[in-house]
Amino acid sequence: MNAIPQTRFKDLPLKRQGKVRDIFDFEDTLLLVTTDRLSAFDVVLPDPIPDKGKVLNQISVFWFEKMADIVGNHLVTTDVDAYPEVCRPHRDALAKRSMLVKKADPLPVECIVRGYISGSGWKSYQKDGQVCGIQLPRGLKESDKLDAPLYTPSTKAEVGDHDINISFEHTVDILGRETAEKIRNLSLEIYNKGAALALEKGIIIADTKFEFGVLDGEIILIDEVLTPDSSRFWPLDDYAPGRGQKSFDKQAVRDWLVNSGWGKTPPAPELPQEVIDNTARTYKEIFTRLTGESL
Ligand SMILES: Nc1ncnc2c1ncn2[C@@H]1O[C@H](COP(=O)(O)OP(=O)(O)OP(=O)(O)O)[C@@H](O)[C@H]1O
Ligand SMILES: [Mg+2]
Known about the structure:
Blueprint: E1 14-17, E2 21-26, E3 29-34, E4 39-40, E5 43-44, H1 52-66, E6 75-77, H2 91-94, E7 98-102, E8 105-106, E9 111-116, H3 119-128, E10 130-131, E11 134-135, E12 145-151, E13 154-155, E14 164-165, H4 168-175, H5 177-200, E15 203-215, E16 218-222, E17 231-235, H6 251-260, H7 273-291
Antiparallel strand pairs: 1-2, 2-3, 3-7, 4-5, 6-7, 8-15, 9-12, 9-15, 10-11, 13-14, 15-16, 15-17
Bound molecules: adenosine-5'-triphosphate (ATP) and magnesium ion.
């Protein structure tokens, strides 16, 4: 297995390196490369998880196609032979873990949809019965399914900071009512369709984040879609409200890190091989369950 912790495409025009993805700029297009880096508790771990990047990239491709009847998207091709010429020497390294996309103007709002109450939403509800300013019924338990999914947008913070929750009306101020309503409605529609499909395969998508961009005056879906990195994936067969849920993808890593006594500040410790292997297997299982295909 050739795990890719970070890409080594020194001759390609690097635009930015996120925690997990490396992005190269080809003017009208971007090349998004999903590496095998894994972040846990917001820290990138020293060990890559073999083929995790392929799983994430292919999951996004799967969803872009499934959602195409709802909204257009940025995908141009995943065929390395159709990438800009300079990419060809890296054919094998790029295969399955990359996509060439249309460069859009990203809208400065992160579109978060929550179908279940968890994480920061649960914390906030315990304090004042609200999630991002939205009043919820009394008596909800941690991880309960919400009557209807909530749209809780945020703005992108500067690198390293946590995003800032904003109200829907605030997104209207930023984007204008038409665009704000459009991306809210699209987000809910995409989430509803994706979550229903995943549920049939034994996966709960508890919440997720979408990004939209504008290209030639049209709103399109960009970035990554309904992956375990942009969403909370829970295994349905372990689901029970009234407690936190297992993470479908990262639980083995989180458990091991917590037991290791690590203080959750960088640098993170190296993982035992067994945890790496288990996690790699879990990512592949998620992919197969969702798509019915193997990598
Ligand atoms: N088609 C596109 N056109 C323009 N920008 C895009 C497109 N698709 C994705 N992006 C941008 O590329 C960036 C992806 O970065 P990436 O996900 O690697 O890092 P991040 O989201 O800033 O941080 P993190 O590492 O926490 O995910 C985002 O800023 C996103 O808005
Ligand atoms: Mg991101």
